[in-house]
Amino acid sequence: MAGSAGGSEHGVPTETRRRPPSRREQARTVSLIVLVGLGVAFAVLNFDEVAVNWVFGTWSTPLIVVIGISFLLGSGVGFLLGRRPSGAGSRRSRRRR
Question: How high is the pLDDT of residue 53?
């Protein structure tokens, strides 16, 4: 039976049928497309050169680069602060469990 077409030797079909996307998946896809479109529009509209005072001097940089760097730094700080324990109170609550 190993040579039969359309299936494997265990009787499980080798081809899987794809089910149509649910309304939730469609809504998620449309939302993602809209957010990407807004992001691209935001980037195009904020491509003006701005003078930025960096640590080592002042350079003219596109505004979208400044916004992107600020977003990445803020996300990193938020991620790190969100992962750390909130102090002695959290240690006590772990001992009581």
Answer: 87
